[in-house]
Amino acid sequence: MMGQFYNSLQVTHQISAPLVDELTSTTAISSSGDEGDPLLTSDLFVENWILEGHRVACTEGKRLLTILVISAPDHFAHRQAIRSSWGGIGSARKDVAFAFLIGTSLDPGLHEQILNENAEFEDIIMYGMEDLYENLSLKTIHGLKWIEKYVYLCLPINISFY
After folding, report:
1. What percent of the chain has pLDDT over 90?
2. How many CA atoms within 13 Å lie on the side-chain side of 93?
3. Which of 106, 125, 141, 154 is the Cys-Cys partner for 53 at CB 3.0 to 4.6 Å?
4. What angle in degrees, to the nearest 10, is found between the helix axes of 108-121 and 76-84?
5. Quick check: 105 and 113 in contact, CB under 8 A?
6. How many CB atoms sit inside 10 A of residue 134's CB?
7. Would the pTM of this model clear 0.70, i.e. be above it?
8. CB 70, CB 139: distance < 8 Å
9. Cα(116)–Cα(97) distance, rounded to whole angstroms?
10. pLDDT at 162
11. Which of 138, 57, 78 is closest to 104 using CA atoms?
């Protein structure tokens, strides 16, 4: 039975609307079987952009493909390697764009370096939550929400995912 393998968390309500607009409710279950207070994703997900990647965003329906690369704040060399290799397609083709999705860092010096990097390349999307492995799912949700807000609504045709 599925509950035997996933006894620490039980989903009680499924997402039924496009992307992440609908809230899901989860109830924490301890190993003894006692239920905790419900935990709503609205308590975890707050749309708070620090850098919004405007260069990558809406281009009046001319964007064919947008690629989001999940990155960590201190991975400057990795981002530069991507820009100088396959990520360079964004500068060669105007219908393709890519951006790096990162969270915030508690290190003010690192935060300043990221702002400088974005001033040069304008390809960083930073959301207002600490960049931790534990927040990876929320980082992904932020990426989907960013696509919905800045890219999806600019498509020249009506595409339905549901």
Report:
1. 23
2. 14
3. 125
4. 10
5. no
6. 7
7. no
8. yes
9. 20
10. 47
11. 138
Structure tokens at 72: 């960590």
Mean per-residue pLDDT, 112-125: 92
Asked if 53 and 122 touch (Cβ cutoff 8 Å), the reply is yes
Residue at 111: amino acid letter: H
Cα–Cα distance for residue pair 107/158, rounded to 1 Å: 42
- Which two structure tokens, joined as six digits, stand for 62? 């001319």
In terms of Cα–Cα distance, which of 73, 81, 80, 78 is closest to 110?
A: 73
Query: What is the reported pLDDT for 74?
Result: 96
Q: For residue 157, give every residue at least 6 positions away whose Cβ sits within 8 Å of its Cβ, in sequence order, or none.
A: none
SS (H, E, C) 48-109: CEEEECCCCCCCCCCCCEEEEEECCCCCHHHHHHHHHCHHHHHHHCCCEEEEEEEEECCCHH
Phi, psi of 107 (to 5 degrees): -85, 110
What are the extents of the domains in the chain? 2-43, 46-154
